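Final report, Chapter 2: Outcomes

The project's central promise was a pipeline that accepts a single protein chain and returns its three-dimensional structure in a standardized token representation, suitable for archiving and comparison. That pipeline is now operational. To close this chapter, we reproduce one record exactly as it appears in the project archive, with the input sequence first and the structure output second.
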Amino acid sequence: MSETANEPDMLVRGVSLFALREYMRTKLEGGSLKAFLSPLSDDDKQAILNVEKAEWYPFDLQKKMRELIVRKYNPLDPEQAVFDACIYTAEYEMSTFLRAIMNFLPAKLVFKQTATVWNKYYSRGVMQTIAGDKKAVLELKDFPADKLFGPVVTAWLTVAARMLELNDVLIRQTGNIHKGDECWRWEAEWK
């Protein structure tokens, strides 16, 4: 059992699982999604195959999906495999309406709203943002996620930066609870 499996309040919104499932379907290129999911329990497979976008699901399902993606597509660089999958999911999840709005908002305002967006996707964790005109620092506390969670947020920030049409963007993860840091942390800088 994973370190998050015993966390009853660790939930993720179904849209995240739905987008990961669509990523898998796209990458399989006609291969069987059911066969790809075969290492999972029957309950987990059914939850993924029948996921409802607006419903809440155990966070552990997202973790298991990321692990399958790593195993299949890039076991030598797990973080890159997760990042690639989550670039797809972030682009998939961003609505056309949200994309249009983000083109008119300053980056500072968008990054400051990260905490609000966070709580729409995850039932736990406190996201804090310090945003300036050319830099943002995001800290996530009280979120005991697995070691491969960092690239999920890095991918989301990358897609947000693209949508904001920021120049010379550098996004990096600078805090990881699995490396002894007190919280997850990401920094974004742009010109």
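Archive annotation: DSSP finds nine helices and six strands in the chain.
This record, like all others produced under the grant, will remain available to the consortium after the project formally closes.
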